[in-house]
Structure formats: structure tokens, C-alpha cells
């Protein structure tokens, strides 16, 4: 958060932060540890006065988004572990869960998949379920290769609804690509990767402490590594 708002790093890093046009959070804003699925099998009297871990997590998320929204437009996509519908396309998180940050017009709660036009650059991406599902059930072991494959066949989620839940559309398929985006990304990948047409595998921040910075002028992309995230002596590095 401090990196994006310009409160971290040297003068050069702060100048870079000042030119950030938009932040896209590609799903899984909550950890799978907040699911508390074991409570389903417990008797009601055992869980009567307990609070779901996701409640406190959403409050913390609201506070983080509040800090971001005061500095830059933020688009929030839902993911596999977030409190919204399970099947694709996932609907936006409800504003009532984010009372602090929702007061700002710079916050946009969007769908998954999500497409946007940022200064004339077309973005299209998902929170990663479509890519991770192909990874599970195919011989391909590289997220960027899978991302490129879905772009070549012109379909965002070719395994739905067979192995990936999706709404039963019968008149038209919203996952068919009608035009090629400038930037095509998936969230929650194991590591950072990019390729042109700019394909971006956005790594899971909780596991890699890495975000991605896209230059809207030349579609250059670089990782931003917060190597000491959560540590007392936090460090921040920009990719080459």
C-alpha cells in the first residue's frame, strides 16, 4: 500500500508511484484460511457465539482499500476464496461489506472475468481459476503457455462447465473472445511471467510478495517485489 501511495522508497520510486493510473486487484483478496469449512460439520450450539474468520478479514480488506482509494483508482475483482458466487462469471463483491472504501468513487467492484479500457489500452483478465483448472487437468505445466493457448483458441475458459463451474448460458457464450486485448492477464499464478500480446501471469501476492507494473505507453511489464513484506525491516525492489 505504501509503495502505491508514494510513501515508500526513494525519490525515483515515488515518482513512479505518482504515475500509476489504476490498480487492479485480481481476486483472492481473502485467504483460503478464512473459509472455516469445518464449522459446517459442527453442531450449531458449538458455533453459536463464534465469529467467522472472514468477517475480520473483510474489515481489514476495507481498511487497506480505503488507503488505496484515496490515492489511485482501484478495480477489485473477486476470486475463488472471496465472499461472492462460486460459478463463473463471478459477480462483484457487495458494497455493504466495504463501508469505508465504498464511499470513494475511485473504488470499482467488478466481475471476474473483467475487461477494462485504461487510457486506450484494453485489459482482459481473470482471477486465475480458468488457468489453474487447465493446469490441473492437462499436460501443460506453464501458466503463461496456458494463458497463450486460451488466447489462440479464442476462449477464456474452455474447461467450463466440465471441470470448472460456470453459469449455464445457452444463447451465447460470454467467454468467447470477440477481439484481442492489449493486455491479457490471470491472477494468483505461482510466479511472475509476461509475453506479448502482453500476457501476464500475476503471481499470488500472499506467496510471492510480488505485484506487476504495466507501462501503458509501450506495454512494458515488470514485477515489483516487496521482499520484506510483513517484516520489521521491509525492503522493496523494482524489477529490471
Can you offer a commentary on this structure?
GO terms for molecular function: DNA binding. InterPro entries: DNA_pol_a/d/e_bsu (IPR007185), DNA_pol_delta/II_ssu (IPR024826), PolD2_C (IPR041863). Residues 17-192 form the DNA polymerase alpha/delta/epsilon subunit B domain. The chain has helices spanning 11-18, 53-69, 129-137, 143-153, 205-208; strands spanning 23-26, 74-77, 107-109, 114-118, 121-126, 183-189, 193-195, 198-203, 210-214, 221-225, 237-238. By secondary structure, it is α/β, with parallel strands linked by helices. Strands 4-5-6-8-7 form a 5-stranded mixed β-sheet. A 3-stranded parallel β-sheet has the order 1-2-3, with helices on one face.
At a glance:
Belongs to the DNA polymerase delta/II small subunit family. This protein has 240 residues and is α/β, with parallel strands linked by helices.
List strands and helices in order, with pairings:
Elements: H1 11-18, E1 23-26, H2 53-69, E2 74-77, E3 107-109, E4 114-118, E5 121-126, H3 129-137, H4 143-153, E6 183-189, E7 193-195, E8 198-203, H5 205-208, E9 210-214, E10 221-225, E11 237-238
Parallel strand pairs: 1-2, 2-3, 5-6, 6-8
Antiparallel strand pairs: 4-5, 7-8, 9-10, 10-11
InterPro entries: DNA_pol_a/d/e_bsu (IPR007185), DNA_pol_delta/II_ssu (IPR024826), PolD2_C (IPR041863)
Pfam families: DNA_pol_E_B
Keywords: DNA excision, DNA replication
Amino acid at each position: 500500500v505504501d509503495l502505491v501511495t508514494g510513501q515508500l522508497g526513494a525519490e525515483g520510486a515515488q515518482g513512479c508511484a505518482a504515475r500509476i493510473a489504476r490498480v487492479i486487484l485480481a481476486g483472492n483478496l481473502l485467504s483460503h484460511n478464512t473459509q472455516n469449512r469445518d464449522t459446517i460439520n459442527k453442531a450449531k450450539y458449538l458455533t453459536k457465539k463464534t465469529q467467522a474468520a472472514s468477517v475480520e478479514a473483510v474489515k481489514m480488506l476495507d481498511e487497506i482499500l480505503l488507503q488505496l482509494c484515496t490515492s489511485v483508482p482501484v478495480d477489485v475483482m473477486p476470486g475463488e476464496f472471496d465472499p461472492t458466487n462460486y460459478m463463473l462469471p463471478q459477480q462483484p463483491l457487495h458494497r455493504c461489506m466495504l463501508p469505508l472504501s465504498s464511499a470513494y468513487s475511485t473504488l470499482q467492484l467488478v466481475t471476474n472475468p473483467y475487461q477494462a479500457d485504461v487510457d486506450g489500452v484494453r485489459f482482459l483478465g481473470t482471477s486465475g481459476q480458468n488457468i489453474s483448472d487447465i493446469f490441473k487437468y492437462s499436460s501443460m505445466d506453464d501458466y503463461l503457455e496456458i494463458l497463450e493457448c486460451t488466447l489462440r483458441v479464442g476462449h477464456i475458459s474452455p474447461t467450463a462447465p466440465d471441470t470448472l463451474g460456470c453459469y449455464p448460458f445457452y444463447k451465447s457464450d460470454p467467454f468467447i473472445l470477440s477481439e484481442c486485448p492489449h493486455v491479457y492477464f490471470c491472477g494468483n499464478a505461482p510466479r511472475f511471467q509476461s509475453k506479448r500480446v502482453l500476457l501476464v501471469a500475476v503471481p499470488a501476492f500472499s506467496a510471492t510478495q510480488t505485484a506487476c507494473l504495466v507501462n501503458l505507453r509501450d506495454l512494458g511489464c515488470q514485477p515489483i517485489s516487496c521482499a520484506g513484506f510483513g517484516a520489521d525491516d521491509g525492503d522493496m525492489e523494482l524489477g529490471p
